[in-house]
UniProtKB/TrEMBL annotation:
<keyword id="KW-1133">Transmembrane helix</keyword>
<feature type="transmembrane region" description="Helical">
    <location>
        <begin position="135"/>
        <end position="159"/>
    </location>
</feature>
<feature type="transmembrane region" description="Helical">
    <location>
        <begin position="63"/>
        <end position="88"/>
    </location>
</feature>
<protein>
    <submittedName>
        <fullName>GNAT superfamily N-acetyltransferase</fullName>
    </submittedName>
</protein>
<dbReference type="GO" id="GO:0016740">
    <property type="term" value="F:transferase activity"/>
</dbReference>
<feature type="transmembrane region" description="Helical">
    <location>
        <begin position="21"/>
        <end position="43"/>
    </location>
</feature>
<feature type="transmembrane region" description="Helical">
    <location>
        <begin position="108"/>
        <end position="129"/>
    </location>
</feature>
<keyword id="KW-0472">Membrane</keyword>
<keyword id="KW-0808">Transferase</keyword>
<keyword id="KW-0812">Transmembrane</keyword>
<feature type="transmembrane region" description="Helical">
    <location>
        <begin position="171"/>
        <end position="189"/>
    </location>
</feature>
<feature type="compositionally biased region" description="Polar residues">
    <location>
        <begin position="299"/>
        <end position="310"/>
    </location>
</feature>
<feature type="region of interest" description="Disordered">
    <location>
        <begin position="271"/>
        <end position="341"/>
    </location>
</feature>
């Protein structure tokens, strides 16, 4: 603990430096691994991001947007953890805070915790290599302890001797945390991309990574004939005057010139509940969308509200006037039943 910390004279710049020493390594590691994750994601469809029209500037913008969303989510989780720690400290009458300070004051204890944490971040890398199948919690803890003890325990103990070493240890732990999260995201992106290629159903993780879940019906402009019988196709992107499509029914990726293809039925992130690859796009029910006026005009004439005939033949008994029965005589019709006094 420095003199400024002990006297409570730490400035806002000191706080920003400490936050930056943690957030910046995490962000850089996540960005680098998300870049690899996007390549793996498009590799499921047998193309590269560049072949889908995603250049470096576009990918940079998408990945920065993904990092912002991750920071927002991480802030919620971190804030909840801080609140829980505060409640635990209040419930234990300050003993939890004193225990944490005691652990930090002991170099071997702090080095052991940091080493085990960095060893645990390797589990994401092992999952990326498909080496974690069938592993349980005990296996994860054992692997983390072995990797941390062999690779990080002694270096972290040596770093705890000086303040600069402790700051360096904090940066290393933050960087390995970002690497572990990045490999975990790569595995999730790859799994969701495989599910999209097999079933045509996207996920929120793909959307957060900037993947364009857009489905279209490709039509030839000359004859207006839909390709593949009007089956919706996944539009992966466009590059050098060609569209890149993926047909999940045939599990194939193909390209078509933009001048020889017309896109219809464009849907961005559609609701694919009950969707089956290979089904043609549902046609709109024109009869259900017509108004009553259109139904009337489509018939043989205007809608009838009654008979067009007029005259006494259409009148009821109460509507008939006097009837002339002969010269000079006018007979009044008798009232119908129920109309008398």
């Amino acid at each position: 603990m420095t003199h400024r910390d002990a006297t409570g004279q730490g400035s806002a710049m000191d706080l920003l430096e400490r936050i930056g020493s943690v957030v910046l390594p995490v962000g850089i590691a996540l960005y680098a691994l998300l870049y690899l994750g996007v390549q793996q994601m498009y590799g499921i469809f047998n193309i590269s991001p560049e072949q889908a029209g995603i250049d470096q500037a576009t990918m940079f913008g998408r990945l920065v947007g993904s990092l912002v969303l991750l920071i927002l989510t991480g802030s919620l989780v971190l804030g909840a953890l801080v609140a829980v720690c505060w409640l635990v400290n209040r419930a234990t009458l300050g003993h939890a805070a004193r225990l944490a300070r005691a652990v930090r004051a002991r170099p071997w204890a702090a080095a052991t915790l940091g080493a085990v944490w960095c060893g645990a971040t390797y589990w994401g890398f092992l999952g990326y290599l498909d080496l974690d199948e069938g592993a349980g919690l005990a296996s994860i803890v054992l692997v983390a302890a072995v990797i941390g003890t062999v690779s990080f325990l002694v270096p972290f103990r040596l770093l705890r001797r000086r303040p600069t070493g402790r700051a360096g240890m904090r940066v290393v732990i933050a960087a390995f945390t970002g690497i572990g999260l990045g490999f975990a995201l790569i595995g999730q992106l790859e799994a969701d991309a495989e599910a999209l290629a097999a079933t045509g159903r996207g996920s929120i993780v793909l959307s957060l990574a900037g993947f364009q879940d857009q489905w279209v019906v490709a039509v030839t402009p000359a004859k207006g004939t839909p390709l593949y019988g009007g089956t919706p196709l996944l539009l992966l992107g466009e590059h050098e005057g060609t569209y890149a499509f993926y047909d999940c029914a045939r599990r194939e990726t193909f390209r078509r010139p933009m001048g020889a293809t017309v896109l219809q039925g464009i849907e961005l992130e559609p609701d694919h509940e009950g969707f089956t690859c290979g089904e043609p796009a549902p046609a709109k029910n024109a009869a259900a969308e017509r108004t009553p006026a259109e139904d009337a005009s489509a018939g043989n004439g205007s809608p009838r509200t009654g008979s067009a005939k007029t005259g006494s033949a259409e009148r009821g008994p109460m509507e008939r006037g006097p009837v002339r029965t002969g010269p000079g005589r006018i007979a009044t019709p008798a009232p119908s039943a129920g109309q008398g006094d």
